[in-house]
Write the structure tokens for this entry.
Amino acid sequence: MSDERRGLGRGLDDLMAQNEMDLPFLSAYGPASEMEEDISQAKAPPEEIFDAVVRHLRSIGCEIESTEDERLSVQGLTVAIGEDAIQLTFESEHRLPFVPSDLASPGLREGKIDVDGRGAQVMIQAWGIEARRCLSRFIEHVTINDDG
């Protein structure tokens, strides 16, 4: 079958010209963001993230008594409200179920794992699946190791 019958006769110049077309309607969406933070998940006020953390911990069976001082501790996890994010501090007698990339997921920042792997810190700046997964993995880890 020849190229003419299949319609493959267009060259690179034609394709480049087609893609250089002016699309003025796109300006209605505003200029493209040059900052990665603008593109990432929407950030919520730390108080809202803290409330979401409390709800999530309760939903997975953690007993939380008081959150009055904008801080809570449960099963080796300390949650505190920071200026622009929530600080999570993990402590365990056993090696934590995290690798550095787990604490660098979308919505999380400044993740650090202690050299012995039994402690870690991370900031939650946007509530999402990665933050929920991080909390759930830690609570599951503590629960399994306390029971076993």
Q: What stands out?
A: The longest strand covers residues 86-91.
